[in-house]
Write a structure and sequence with these properties.
The chain is elongated. It is an alpha/beta fold and 151 residues long.
Length: 151
């Protein structure tokens, strides 16, 4: 019998559904990030309960597993030393002649469009531990970023 006639369902040829990827390393969060994670868990739980189709429920349960894992593994990041860039810091920098104010946050709280960058982002990694008045290397350039202010 031809292989074309042995197929039992269309499900056989669908792409596999993998779990949502979880960033490697510790799940360090700010207090705001922890609150956002808990709120997201509640939001997705409500959506699962209200799902009308099995397909929607399956998709939402997958998302819920991600958020449950993130909530269970969340660790409040230690407060950075005063005037030193760390997780939770609001830092004003000068990069390529442009001034920019960024907040260093956990992975799930990151929103680059609103100047919230994850602590694992290359720019955040370059800034970690710096103090106002220092310059740090970035993107292969020595003294590429000037730290203007740290809050």
């Amino acid at each position: 019998m031809s292989v074309a006639f042995r197929r039992e369902s269309d499900e056989e040829h669908l792409e596999p559904k993998f779990e949502l990827p979880i960033p490697s390393g510790p799940n360090l969060v700010t207090p705001r990030g922890l609150d956002l994670t808990r709120a997201k868990v509640a939001e997705v739980e409500a959506a699962v309960a209200a799902a009308e189709t099995e397909e929607d429920r399956t998709r939402l349960q997958r998302e819920l597993r991600y958020w449950h894992t993130r909530a269970a593994t969340a660790e409040l990041a230690p407060a950075p030393a005063e005037d030193e860039v760390g997780i939770g810091s609001v830092v004003t920098i000068r990069l390529n002649g442009q001034m920019r104010t960024l907040t260093i946050v956990g992975h799930d709280e990151a929103d680059p469009a609103h100047d919230r960058i994850a602590y694992a982002a290359p720019l955040a990694r370059a800034l970690m531990g710096a103090m106002a008045g220092e310059t740090v290397p970035f993107a292969g350039k020595a003294d590429a970023v000037e730290v203007v202010e740290v809050k």
